[in-house]
Structure formats: C-alpha cells, structure tokens
Amino acid sequence: MASSMHLCSHLPTTHFHQTNPTPTSTPLFFLKTPQISFTKPSIISPKLTISPLSSKGIYNFTPKASMTEVNSQKGSLGSFEIFDSEETVAISLAKYTAELSEKFVNSRGFFTVVVSGGSLIKSLRKLVEAPYVDSIDWSKWHVFWVDERVVPKDHPDSNYKLAYDGFLSKVPILPDNVHAINDTLPTKEAAEEYEIRLKQLVDSSVLATSPTTGFPKFDAMLLGMGPDGHVASLFPGHPLVKEDKKWVTHIMDSPKPPPERITFTFPVINSSAYIALVVCGAGKAGIVKSALGGENQSSEVLPVQMVSPEGELKWFLDKDAASLF
Exposed, middle or buried: residue 50 (CB in 10 Å: 0-12, 13-18, 19+)? Predict the structure, then answer.
C-alpha cells in the first residue's frame, strides 16, 4: 500500500483490500480508489477514525476526539473483520469462542457465555464440529440467553429451542449449567426470576461482577443484530433502551413478534468482558453502514450503536452485510 495517508469524504466509496490474497477462511476486502494507507490512523468518515490492530485486516474504530456527542452516546465502536461468506464467519466465530472458553476456564474455572437467537445460532454451528467439539471443556460452560421470547421451550419461536436444536443437544454441557428462563411464569415474573438466578450465580462466584458498574460481567456475549439495528430485545425508540437499574427486564409490546419477551439491559450487556456482534446478509447492509459509518438518517442512536463493552467488541461481518460500508 502507498505510504501516504488519503482522506475519503464518506464510507460508501471506501473499502479495504489485502494486497496478498489469502485463502477464503481469512477476511476478504475489496478495493475502490482512492487507496488508503493504514500505516498511520486514517480518517475515512467525519465520525470515525480507523487504526490498524494487526496485519490480518482487523481494524479498531474510535470516534474522533472532537465528536463529544458521539463519545458520550456510542463509546468505542470496536474492531471488525469482513469475510467472504457466512460460512467463513461461522468458522472464525467458532475459533474465537473456543479460544475465549480456554482462556476463562484456565483463569477462573468457568466460561459464562450469553447467546441471542435468530441467525446467531446458525453461525455457532461450527462449534459442534472438529476440532472444537472434542477440545472444548463443555463441563465448565454456563450458557445464558440475552433475550428470550416468552413462549414454551418447545415452541418454534423459542430461542432456547433454537439453541438446543442447533448446538446444545450436540455437546456435553451439564444440564444445570444451561440457564433458560422459567417458561411457566408470566412475562414480568419470568424476568424477575431470571435476575434473581443471576444474582445467585454471582453469590456462588460463577458469575463475575464489574468493579466499575456492579453489574454481572459475563465472559462472552454473542449477539446478532436485527435489520432495524436492534440487539437482544432492545428496539429503536423503545423506553427499555434507557433502563439502567435492572439486570433483566421485560417487554410486552415488541415491534417484532412475539410481543412478550425478556431481555438483558444495556448495563449488563456493556459490562461484558468480550462481545461478538455477528451480522450477515445484504438485508442488513444499510444498518451496518448507519451503525459503523455514523450516517444514521435519524437523530436517534440505534441500539446496536449503544453496545460498548468494558472489554472487547468485535464485529464479524460477511461481505454482503459490509457491501455498503
């Protein structure tokens, strides 16, 4: 790449390219002129500064210091990788999750991982294949749900059922370590009971807590994103995005059916040690552009832009989701 730094006025005309192509299991970038050097931080958006983290095409996003309103609303936007297909996203996500599992099992004896539903579960399918299915210490895993539809566990809309059918039933996780909601309770009571259970796990030292916020500090949170920019069951414009006291809350009027759900709040999400945001498909390209490029047509901050963990935030994007970025 050229040694000089070039400026672009907006993201849609700027993509990234690796000069030495690598196999498809590694990130793939596309090049449009003007060419950009990453030898120094490069400003490619009025609201974004990008600095290199490694030679593999992983970059760190930090709002410009002058954009105080962005700093207060969004915090760090994390790092990202763009892959040539959803298949290679799944491969990289499995490796990432397995490495975190080993790290936390070795350091604290447990691995507390939170999953969402939808396409995220499909992207976890490589965990039940070699080499991970036999190398992960599944007995040390504790699995939680960042959000859940309040339906019976055998209902097609259940995130528990989706995760159970997708990978939980295929690995030797201890049944007592699978922390699903009590689907026999009404929605509000189910949320309250789930929060009580989290506090019991804090008391037993299975769950850590953030020394900064006092909220539970999950080791890893694996999130998807909706086409409207929602994460968990925290939707744009809904009052729950501002909830800052409860660990778990409930929603009775979800704009996406089914209407009754429970969800972790942003203070819990953002107390995580690691967050992976997995976004695939051309149908989400516009919202990825808005979220990472700061070009949201509305003055309202998208829920996905409010994801700002104490630890690491990493986006896993396929080339379709990143096609407008």
Answer: buried
Q: Regarding beta strands 208-209 and 59-62, do their DSSP bridges make them parallel or antiparallel, or are they unpaired?
A: unpaired
Residues 298 and 128: their CA atoms lie apart, in Å, by 41
> Under a CB-based contact definition with an 8 Å cutoff, are residues 104 and 110 in contact?
yes
Give per-residue pLDDT as tens, 165-186. Answer: 999 999 999 999 999 999 999 9
d(CA 258, CA 201): 29
Count of beta carbons in the 10 Å neighbourhood of residue 32: 13
289: enclosing H helix or E strand: helix 285-293
Confidence of residue 133 (pLDDT cuts 50, 70, 90): very high
pTM: 0.79
Distance CA 13, CA 240 (A): 35
Which is more confident, 12 or 199?
199
Residues in contact with 233: Cβ distance below 8 Å, sequence separation at least 6, in sequence order: 147, 240, 251, 254, 261, 262, 263
| Domains of the chain with bracketed CATH | 103-278 (3.40.50.1360)
Is residue 321 within 8 A of residue 229, CB to CB? The reply is no
Each residue's pLDDT tens digit, 237-275: 999 999 999 999 999 999 999 999 999 999 999 999 999
CB 236 within 8 A of CB 229: yes
Q: What is the mean pLDDT of the chain?
A: 81
- Looking up tokens 């949320």, which residue turns up? 191
β-pairing, 147-149 vs 312-318, is unpaired
pLDDT of residue 115: 98
What are the b/e assignments for 236-252, b being 16+ CB within 10 Å? bebebbebeebbbbbbe
Got the DSSP string for 76-114? --EEEEEESSHHHHHHHHHHHHHHHHHHHHHHHS-EEEE
In contact, 199 and 189? CB cutoff 8 Å: no
